[in-house]
Each structure stands twice: as structure tokens, then as C-alpha cells.
Amino acid sequence: MANTLKFGNGNWATKDGSTLAYNDESGFNPLPFDFTRASSATVVNKNGLIETVASGIPRIDFLGNTKGALLLEPSRTNLIAQSEAFGSSYWTKSGASIQGDASTAGAEQVVNGNFATDSDWTKATGVTISGGTLNFSGVANGDSGTNQSSSIVVGKTYKATFTVSNWVAGGVRILLGSTGTSATRSSNGTFTAYVVASGNTTIYLQSIGVTTLSIDNVSIKEVQGFSSPSADSPLGAFKLVEDTGTSAHKINSSIATTLAGVNSISIYIKKGELKNIGLKESQETGKYASFDLVNLTVLDKSAGVEANINSQINGWIKVSMQVAITGTSIRFSTHLLSSSYTSGDPNTSYTGDGTTGVYIYGAQLEVGSYSTSLINTSGSAVTRQADVCTNGANSEVINSTEGVLMVEIAALADDNSDRKISLSDGSLNNVINIGLSRFSGNINAEVKSGGVLQTAGFGATGVTQTNSNKFALSWGGGTTKFYVNGILASSHTSVTSPIGMNVLDFSLSSGFEKMYANVKDIRVYTTALTDSELAALTTI
Q: Are 198 and 219 in contact (CB under 8 A)?
């Protein structure tokens, strides 16, 4: 059962950016594909971590498998401008806060934060320093005149703490730069916030409402995040923590989307003290999904919503939901859920304890009926271009007269699209292909010779396309046979074989119906195999 061409099955190699098949008859004889992708992209590496690969470099994905698979994805855009900076003002925190890892706190950034002297601070009208406090007396709403220059770095995350006393009216918040802001505090107490510096390097104490109160013990220190699922940003995760109020506890942002229709929302979550979380689109539809992070189950979802939960590594889990919209804006919300939650809208009220939460990383909104690999953003939407893999064989390893094409693939989604892998002469006239059908659960195969279809109705039904499946199409001697997961699905006689086949493509020869999938294994044989050999070759 010697085969001329092997691709994958745990054996992966690249050359000049292309992924390689090889001719197995005379040892490792490389057969490069033409591979392009006009952008960087992420993939799950052998260690189970998300890492970025450069443009034009094929991605071998190890998510859920130990041998790896060639990851082929369509072009997608992450419309969320801040996929990891959850402490920034881009994200609204309601009944909750974002925390970094306080144990990593660096040097103090505030000078004279205890107000021991009347110095180092520019003061707004109505602000004085005396008795070891900074005193606001009827300070106008939105006044940022109380400030000092600092060495904070735009884009970094800082732990900001301060104490409010003698509160009478209004409130105060810390701004790190022009837009990096903490929550407003309108009562006595000591407060902590994790803030991303934005716009400039000035530290502001801003009044909200006409404000009368005193401030003391202002401290700002750079912190790192918690351990993340990313090899590129190992400390890039943050903790979403419920406050002590009785309310819904969530983080959200309104995002413009490019197209009406099905959009996919996803985020990486790691269990903290809580095990249940929810996703919701609250701008237009009110659609939601909720998830159990321990049992890896979908707890509940709105009608018409698709929802998925997938384990990653080190406790990280990717949750996603797909929702159809008619407008051009989505409000993406992630909700903390109490231990008593079982079902229903995740925008539910409960009393928090101020310390309980989950860890979050890598939020994504993309137009499409399924979620794809993470596209990191840091200030604007980012597009990952499509993977294109073509021209992976030649006439020496393809016998047009007889042979076998075997593939092991898992579709990215059952998305009502035709997806093909083909052997051909570079045209649609002489071609053998195995494909995922636009009809759910259907797998089909075709043989065309001289422009004439030889195998109408050649395929199998009831196959879960997103599972890893093995297919083999055998041709020669006027007979074709199609095996699916060890079973003969269909066969034809009086078949004329194609001529001049010399190309292996992840599409229908001419570039149509591109295959988007995890491709684990492909083999080409120059002889038609027996039924027992075909059954063994395709058995999972």
C-alpha cells in the first residue's frame, strides 16, 4: 500500500514559507505547495499556547490534537479595537472592575501622594492642600485642573489607589492621560482601580459633579496582568471582579460591525472563584448564551443563537456565540453569574463580594457564522487575511489512470458552503475532488473527465463535518469507490478516468470552493487499493 505523496500525519516541514508534502517512494522528496497569507496570524503551538506567526507562513495548529493540522481560515476582521486592554476606557465596567496582578506592582509614579506639603500638584480652582489632604470645595463638574506630570507610559496598566474622606457632594476619579480613567468615587473610603494610561502621561484628579471632599494616599504603580493563554503576551490576562453592590456585574463595549447578518462573539475565560459566565448582545437583539466553565457546557442560550465552549490549556476556555443582527452595531457584554444561576438572561442582579471573579483574555467580534483564531488588536480593528494553499503535486506523483486520494480533515464549521480538496489538470475538465457539502452532514466526491461528470450523486450523509473524518476516493479500471470513516459510502462503474492530473489544491482546482479546515493528513496512491485496504486507510 505504497503511496507517492504524503502530507501531514504528524510530519510537518516548511521551505521558503511554503508547507511541504513529500514523495514517499524514494525517501523524503519535498513537494512544496504555493502558500500565501498577506498578514500575520495566530495559532495554537505544541505547548498549547497561542502564538503569532508572520505573514506568508503556514500555521500548524495543535489545538485538540498532538500531531498538528494545517490551519486554513478565511479572511476575518476583529472589530473590537482593544482585544486585551480591558482596563481601558474602551470597555465599560458595570458592577465590576478589572484587576491586574497586584504582586507585580512596580515603582511609585506619584510625587507627594500623601500631600505632606503644598507642592508638586497643579490645583484647580477650589482645590487646596492642607492637613495632609487634598481638599475639593465646590469644584466644578469635569474639572481636570488638579494634576501632575509623571513618567507613566501610555498603553501600560497601572494600579491606582486613593482615599476619600469628608465627602459632601460630587465625586472624583483618576485619569492617566486624557482617556485612561478609573471609576468615579462618590463616598468615603479607600478605592482601587486598574487603569490603562492613554493619550498622554499626565495624572489627573477629575471632579465629577460639583465636588466637595478630601483626598489622601494617592498611589499609582505599574502592574502586569495574570498568566494568559498567549505565548506572545504571557502576562496579558486580567481579572474581572464583581463589586459589592446588588446589580448585574459585567464588562461591555459598543462596536460598529461592517455587515448585518450573523456575527460571532468570542472571548477566552479562565475560572476564578466563579464558574458560570454569560455573553450577550444587548444593543439590538438581547440575545445571549451562558456557560459552565467547570463542566464545559452551554447552560442556556436564546432562540436562534449558536454557542460553543472549548477547552484550551492551563484552565483557559474559549466561549463563543453567533447572533444575527439587522443593524450595524453590537454591544458585546461579558457577565459574571452567581453560583445560583441556572438559566435565563445573564444580565441578572445579585450581591457581589468585591473579590470574586474570572480571568479574561482575547475578545473578538467578527462577521461570520463561526469563530476563528484570535486576532489581537491594540487600538483599532485588525484583519487577518485568508490562507491560500495551492499547487502541491506534479504528474510524477499522480497517476491519472488509477489511484487513491485520501484526506483526513475537520471543517472549521458546517456553514452551508461547499469546501473541496482536488486533484486536477489545473482546470475543471479533468478533476477528482473530495468535499464538504453545503448540505449539512453531507460529504461528496466527484470525478470529471474531459469536462463530463462521471459520478453524479457520489457521497455520504450523516457525517459531522466539524469532527475529524477520513475519506478516500479510489479510481481505475472503470470503477470508483468512496470510503468514509472505514465504510464504503458509494461506488460507480463505467467511469472514465481523468487525464493529465498534476495539481493538488485545497480548492476546486480553479480556486473556487476553498477548503477552510484543519487538515491533518493527505495521501495520494498511484494504484487503486482493495476494499480492505481502503477500509483500513479510512478507519478513525
A: no
CA distance 403 to 145: 79
Q: Are 473 and 492 in contact (CB under 8 A)?
A: no
Tell me the three state secondary structure of residue 536. helix
Cα four-point dihedral sign 16, 17, 18, 22: positive
pLDDT at position 257 is: 81
Quote the pLDDT of residue 30: 87
Q: Rounded to whole angstroms, what are the CA distances from 486 to 54, 406, 470?
A: 38, 12, 8
Specify the CATH architecture of the domain 78-98+226-384: Sandwich (2.60)
Listed by start position, the domains of the chain span: 5-34+388-538, 78-98+226-384, 102-222
Can you give the pLDDT at residue 26? Answer: 66
Instruction: Please tell me the distance from the alpha carbon of residue 366 to that of residue 20, in angstroms, as a whole number.
Output: 31
What is the rounded (10 degree) CA torsion for 436, 437, 443, 449?
Answer: -90
d(Cα 445, Cα 437) in Å, to the nearest integer?
Answer: 9
By CB atoms closer than 10 A (0-12, 13-18, 19+), residue 59 is: buried
Name residue 402's amino acid. Answer: E
Q: Provide the whole-model pTM.
A: 0.92
CA–CA distance, 45 with 51 (Å, rounded to integer): 7
Enumerate residues 6+ apart whose C-beta is below 8 A from 365.
Answer: 78, 79, 80, 255, 257, 263, 264, 265, 330, 332
The continuous run of DSSP H or E covering 531 comes out as helix 531-538
Residue 152's identity, in one-letter code, is I
Q: What angle do CA 387, 265, 506 make, to 5 degrees?
A: 20
Assigned CATH for 102-222: 2.60.120.260
Burial 179-197 (b: 16+ CB within 10 A, else e): ebbbbbbbeeeebebbbbb
Do 162 and 218 contact (CB within 8 A), yes or no? Answer: yes
pLDDT of residue 1: 56
What nine digits make up the cell of 155?
498603553
In the predicted model, residues of the chain with pLDDT beneath 70 are 1-2, 26
